[in-house]
Amino acid sequence: MCELRRMSRRAPPDSPMLFEDIPLVPTFELELIARRAGHWPVAGADEVGRGPLAGPVVAAAVILDPERIPNGLNDSKQLSAARREELFVEILATATVSIASSSATRIDTTDIRKASLDAMRRAICGLAMPASYVLTDGLDVPTGLACPGKAVVKGDARSFSIAAASIVAKVTRDRMMTRAGVVFPAYGFAAHAGYGTAQHRAGIEEHGPCSLHRMSFRPLRKEAV
Q1: Residues 6 or more apart whose Cβ sits within 8 Å of residue 222
Q2: Nearest alpha-carbon partner for 212 in 166, 172, 176
Q3: What are the residue ranges spanned by the domains of the chain?
Q4: Keyword set for this entry (predicted)?
């Protein structure tokens, strides 16, 4: 009887739970669904840098050419730095791209969610070819757009356009933080891009925060009180 109870709680053979460990693979299907509904062109948008203690949050919007989609597009976190750089060049050469950022100051005066969505909105609105529809990564579509959109959970692993945007945003932000490391060498920004590593925290402890630090984030928020 106990064994029957245990079996009754197991997932049926066709349960989605059985496929949770299978990695997602981005495709162009969401873009084509929008196209069949009369929306074209379709842009993908994503942001990078919500979690760091320092530096901006960077957003990108990308409209891919269906005939020239770079091979190997994927969630930027699943790619090596070298591969991201290669795809960054390919995306800029074959697609319509727009990039925007929100500074640490803007993050502190609003909040990270609002600053991220505002950067995404400005990236979408900055496209040289206006989008008819937007696919965004995550749970939110920015307000203030001239077109409808859809938020896609794990979108950078489901949509080629969002994956391309994630790569552009990631490479752009990493390059910005590498340059920041030259201006503020005490923190090692080139090594950790502003995330709260032991090296970064040690630099803050020894030298205090700089103008790139997000003073609304812990543990920096304690120092601001």
Answers
A1: none
A2: 176
A3: 28-207
A4: Cytoplasm, Endonuclease, Hydrolase, Manganese, Metal-binding, Nuclease
The predicted-structure confidence for 162-180, as pLDDT tens digits, reads as follows 999 999 999 999 999 999 9
Residues at the binding site for a divalent metal cation are 46-47, 137
Q: For 28-207, CATH number?
A: 3.30.420.10
Report residue 94: phi and psi, to 5°.
-125, -10
Question: What is the structure's pLDDT at 24?
Answer: 82
Neighbours of 32 (CB within 10 A): 13
Element (H, E) at 102: strand 96-102
Q: Exposed, middle or buried, 80 (CB in 10 Å: 0-12/13-18/19+)?
A: exposed
List, as residue ranges, the binding site. Answer: 46-47, 137
Cα distance between residue 22 and residue 201, in whole Å:
36
Positive/negative CA dihedral, 10, 12, 18, 24: negative
The secondary element (H helix, E strand) that includes residue 199 is helix 198-207
On the question of a cis peptide bond just before residue 56, with omega within 30 degrees of 0, the verdict is no
pLDDT band for position 22 (cuts 50, 70, 90): low
pTM listed for this prediction? 0.89
Q: Residue 188 carries which DSSP code?
A: -
CA distances from 170 to 48, 49, 83, 193 (A): 6, 8, 12, 10
Specify burial of residue 30 (Cβ count, 10 A radius: 0-12, 13-18, 19+): buried
Check pLDDT > 60 for residue 4: no
| Helix (H/G/I), strand (E/B), else coil: 126 | coil
